[in-house]
């Protein structure tokens, strides 16, 4: 769809092709939340794993960002992005189907699971790089933050329904078969994206390894140099340290420390999704009132409070513990639902189209690299120090991120028009 064809849309309307993109993302997002829940339950309940094993699972999922991310970003910037999105959706669907197949053949083990997740994560890197850099081609600049907010809203709904649905499915059919739902969601996403009609620049030809390396360096220099994104990028890397810790210890905390059932933990996760729905719904108005910088800082403060609430769940009765964990997850989701659209739209608005994939993938790769490094360490420390101690460490990390951003001029930043 050419740019001129979008001009007639009203300020409140989105073009058809964006809605196809949005539906594809929403459905595959629901499947992903179900699978994230199912894989953690599979490690802890089916494979009798520990917090350390969950840490290795998370590391395997994000390792491709560290290994391939920078190069993939440069490659994607030189290619049409829509075909890459369709192809990687189909590949992820096939890879996920191998998990229940291995289980059915009675050969599923933690190493085998990690290999599948590693391949799945590699396809996800390409998909993310293409998808995030494709969105600015579907909507005009003034609508970009609102478009991200709408995508975040669908993601928030998925994060609400996904854990609850995952908990129900794990309780009824088991974790391995639950993964099948995500495979089907990627198939739907590929079919929906295939219907989008958009003019994209032709793929570059004659790219050499040396030229590709130069493009990688150019992307890194832009992300941490002249773009003005450095302060936000470093703060986000710090946020991912805390997020990696929470991601590793939350499932063992719920199952092993608080003795929750899979369904109870799914309901807790659903509350986090409700918080994200609310955050995505109010974020545009909050951003207009506070500005981009202050909105993001407030979200980090809320995240800190969320982990404190989770920490307080330890030692309480089951009902009180569930209530405290639900409060923490609700605040955690609220902060994520409010912050993401502002971070993403600000990053994309200051970045030219030819650098979109490299910028997004460079920053996301280093964020996921943080998870790759921190997740196994957090799991090992949780097994030796205790899960509550690691939640306290996450609280301190989030507080430092919020305070660090507030101490810089980033607090006065507003997204460019």
Structure description:
The structure is a single chain. The protein is an all-alpha fold. It has a single domain (14-198, 207-412), classed as MFS general substrate transporter like domains (Growth Hormone, Chain: A, Up-down Bundle), CATH 1.20.1250.20. Helices cover 80% and strands 0% of the residues. It is built from 13 helices and no strands. Helix 2 crosses helix 7.
What's the helix and strand layout?
Blueprint (H helix, E strand, L loop, with lengths): L15 H31 L4 H27 L3 H24 L5 H25 L9 H30 L1 H20 L14 H16 L5 H28 L4 H29 L1 H21 L5 H32 L6 H30 L1 H20 L11
Helix pairs in contact: 1-2, 1-5, 1-6, 2-4, 2-7, 2-8, 2-12, 3-4, 3-6, 4-12, 5-6, 5-9, 5-11, 7-12, 8-12, 8-13, 9-10, 9-11, 10-11, 10-13, 12-13
